[in-house]
Amino acid sequence: MRAPLYWTLVVASGAAVLFAFAPYRLFWLMPLLLAVPLALSARAGARPFLTGYLWGLAAYTACFNWIYHSLHTVAGLPSLPAAAATLLLPAYLALFPAAALALTHRLARGRALLAHLVLFPALWTLAEWLRSWLLTGFPWGAVGYSQINESPLAGYAAVGGIHAVTFLVALTAGVLAQLPLSNTRARLAMAALVAAAWGGGAALSGISWTQPVGTPTRVALAQGNIPQSLKWNPDLQQLTLERYFRMIATARADLLILPETAIPLFLDDLPSGVITMIQREAHAKKMAVAVGIPRRTDDGQGYLNAVVAFSDERLPYYAKDHLVPFGEFIPLPSLIGWIYRYMDMPLSGFSRGGSAQAPLALAGQQVAFNVCYEDSFGEELIGPARDATLLANVSNLAWFGDSVAMDQHLQLSQARSLETGRPMLRSTNTGMTALIEADGTVKALAAPNTTQVLNVEVTGRSGLTPYMRTGNLPMLLLCVLLLVAGSLLARRR
């Protein structure tokens, strides 16, 4: 194969990964596209690391192109540096598939079967787990998410988490890469293996790991639809307050949730009487009200991205713990802090809320909140979910405009519902405001980029899924064992 064709196939298959995820959800594409760099890199004279790197660079650039909108259109960074900065994240993330592919061929020592069916699934899964926590982590774009919630493989999320789904996608890709190299009997055996894996997922999807508890709760999920360019404008704060107060005044629910930083003022800077007015409405309707609003830390030395229960006189709150680097905090401020002089990014220095925060007691439910992309980190949600009957995510994706970021984020929340066996309530500024059931199904969805209140009815759940009992450990141990066994077998000619 000529080099131009080789590299064109690598880049094209990587870029097409976008269509495997939401909103397109062509889940069957992912194993096919992942098999391309694996099969191509096994050719004589191929360069596995570069192959994996270019595939990953194309994939992550296509999936996360919405970063440019946030940097240029919203934050005001000039187009050229914004385009360069947009490529920084894909350029970093591409190192992980590059390393997985290079190590696969290095350890396999020419043993294609070991490379495709043992080493590659293990190394790919370990690489994606590594990038989910290294340097605070960025799990978006993990191949397992492409299977949520349409694929039979989604059934494994409650058992082994999203990394179990990723492993089986990589295994399927390995089978596809191995098929042209095998005889008829081996092909039949591999087809049976894939059928068993996918059929097992379908069977697991029918199991309810948690149980309903209590009576249904009426919930109102507010979607304010405040453009990011206007959100922090001091001249328009009154308009924002009036819009959300009308939603509170007209809501008929047991629980009302407003999105992340719905009120663009610090809690103690609110105009006199606003909290009293909201509490009066809430008490008159016997309605719990949770509001996304920044608040200062108790010592006054920092500030938090919080969700505050306004309907409770004590104003209990949840504060975001897993912050977005470069957005909510500035890593190495002495080196890169100067960049922020060219961008309009208010509140870029949040403090962490702490990892041991209890759910909020609201409307007879124990609600475990997470803010923005905190629902990307499945294992971090296990602790709060244990004592919760509902999960709730508040977000503001106005930073990314009318892009696929909203749909991709919804898919992440679906995975968390599957892993924990809990419904997920989502209240967002511009979308996707939704109710996700415990089986990952989107039961109700507000039209994005509209101003509305989505009214739903939800029943809380209790109990533990297998994933909540064990976390990622069993999956990681399996991958390590396969890696060691595959390496040892490759050395025994």
Description:
The protein is α/β, with parallel strands linked by helices. It has 2 domains: 3-208 and 472-491, no CATH class; 212-464, 4-Layer Sandwich (Nitrilase/N-carbamoyl-D-aminoacid amidohydrolase), CATH 3.60.110.10. The protein has helices at 3-15, 29-40, 48-63, 66-74, 79-93, 95-108, 112-131, 157-178, 184-205, 228-231, 237-250, 274-285, 333-336, 382-386, 405-420, 466-470, 473-491; strands spanning 211-212, 217-223, 255-257, 288-296, 303-309, 317-319, 360-362, 365-371, 390-395, 424-428, 434-436, 442-445, 452-458, 461-462. A hairpin with a 2-residue loop joins β7 (360-362) and β8 (365-371). It comes from Crenobacter intestini. Pathway: Protein modification; lipoprotein biosynthesis (N-acyl transfer). Belongs to the CN hydrolase family. Apolipoprotein N-acyltransferase subfamily.
Reconstruct the topology from this structure:
Blueprint: H1 3-15, H2 29-40, H3 48-63, H4 66-74, H5 79-93, H6 95-108, H7 112-131, H8 157-178, H9 184-205, E1 211-212, E2 217-223, H10 228-231, H11 237-250, E3 255-257, H12 274-285, E4 288-296, E5 303-309, E6 317-319, H13 333-336, E7 360-362, E8 365-371, H14 382-386, E9 390-395, H15 405-420, E10 424-428, E11 434-436, E12 442-445, E13 452-458, E14 461-462, H16 466-470, H17 473-491
Parallel strand pairs: 2-3, 3-4, 8-9, 9-10
Antiparallel strand pairs: 1-14, 2-13, 4-5, 5-6, 7-8, 10-11, 11-12
Helix pairs in contact: 1-2, 1-3, 2-8, 3-5, 3-6, 4-5, 6-7, 7-8, 7-17, 8-9, 8-15
